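User: Teach me something about this protein's shape.
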Amino acid sequence: MAVVSTLVSLFPRAVMQGVPILYGATGEIMTEKSGNLNLGIPGVMYVGGISGVIGAFLYENSLSSWDDMNGFLALFIPMICTIIGSLLMGLLYCFLTVTLRVNQNVTGLAITTFGVGFGNFFGASLIKLVDSDVPSVALSHTSKYFAAKLPFAGDLGVFGKLFLSYGFLAYAAVIIAIICGFFLNRTRGGLHLRAVGENPATADAAGISVTKSKYMATCIGSVIAGLGGLYYVMDYANGVWSNEGFGDRGWLAIALVIFAIWRPNLGIFASVIFGGLYIVYLFVPGLSLKAQELFKMLPYVVTIVVLIMVSARKKKENQGPASLGLSYFREER
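Assistant: First, the predicted structure itself:
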């Protein structure tokens, strides 16, 4: 019974921990299927989070009374700000790597550095505006709309706690991953996108616009990843923004892409596993701080093991796109 009780307690927390990672991984899978390797996902998630925070902050401060808060606007304004912020990051990455053909690894790392700095700068500015005693900004009134759970979840016992006790963005992450998986594997557009990622010269010769495909996939992937940043702040962190609060979740999202072998549907289950591995140390009694840090390495260790196993089997469907990380020069076709 003790084991069952622990699992019932661990699973919801693993899901909440895994949702922002799932958003980032789904967005990165869409990006990588076009041949773009965007190591800037951590920065994109950061910008998505702070953009939503800025929108929510401005909306809350425009109200004369909390009774005037409109639920639709409380959700819509942060979400549209997140979409715009993360979309601009995607466009910036594409302009540098697709149009100017700058090295993708360098660009991705620069995007991450810029995104984290962007978030910290505006986060610190908001903290100064509210004159908070602690280095954080609390948007609890907006957060309650994002974290609202199904009203009947509590009446369904363990089932309700395990599967129905999350905010709408958690379910949206699963739906988006399923839609992306269906698009990549069951539609003509997905086939074209995968063709661009495998061999852009052949796709170009077949009349597929390589530039358009890369721009679309990367920008859509960035928006999806940005929603992960919004979920983390507004739901997981209860509307509290603190600089450097994201930790290494953006990098975990990139690792999850490999763990899920570039399949969004598999990423749904993998994100829960990652989320559980990331916090399992909380359920192991008597661990020292050093041991806790070792336990936090588990998602990366598992990813390395999976990468070795996948590479050893050499199955084409379990590998990344052949042209991943390579710029396309039409003149070389």
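Now, about its shape. The longest strand covers residues 137-138. The longest helix spans residues 2-33. If you'd like, I can walk through any region in more detail.
User: That's plenty for now, thanks!
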